[in-house]
Amino acid sequence: MVWMGSARWTTTQVCIGLLAATAAACGSRGAERTLLATRIPVARLDSVLKTADSVRLPLGAARILSGVAAESGLAARTPHDTMTVGEILTWARAEQVRKKQVDAAASAAERARQDSVRQLLAPLVAVSIVKKMYLPKDPASEQYEDYISLAFAYQNKGTKAMRAFQGDATFLDLRRLDLQRAPEGGHGARAGADAA
Length: 196
What we know:
This protein is of the alpha+beta class. It has helices spanning about 1-35, 45-50, 60-70, 75, 85-120, and strands at about 40, 80-85, 125-135, 145-155, 170, 180-185. The strands form 3 sheets. Strands 1-2 form a two-stranded antiparallel ribbon. The longest helix is centred in the middle third of the chain and has 37 residues, at about 85-120. The chain is elongated.
């Protein structure tokens, strides 16, 4: 009989703890809702966020608002002079999506430009790697980083003689994404007589 009483007492304690946690969670959500509904001058977002630093926001929302508050010229880009914090958050999320789309479009345009230049130059100059060396770091000889040395051979495949050329070597991974760019030593090279 004693065991049943203590089990009932433990169950009651657990229920009271759950109710208290639910009430605390609802209270913090209330503060979050109040902050998000507060209409503020957009230019003062930083100071409003500093005064409301005790309000718990979801991590993603807090990061977005902190990033927006740190940007200069924020008030000039928002649709209104005064907005609620929730409206600013929604606008900032839409801006992030727009920026990603613009960046993706610019990246695609740059890749297309590089491909078109590559197609124009491919029949004119052939480039091949003829020697590759790995040079490990050697602090005793004041070489503090590892180096990879490459030697290129250039061949004029066009009909006209070339006096000089210059370019960059681009190293791609299997997905054709740039890993690294290195300036080639081709400028000043005599390409008119097929350099080897």
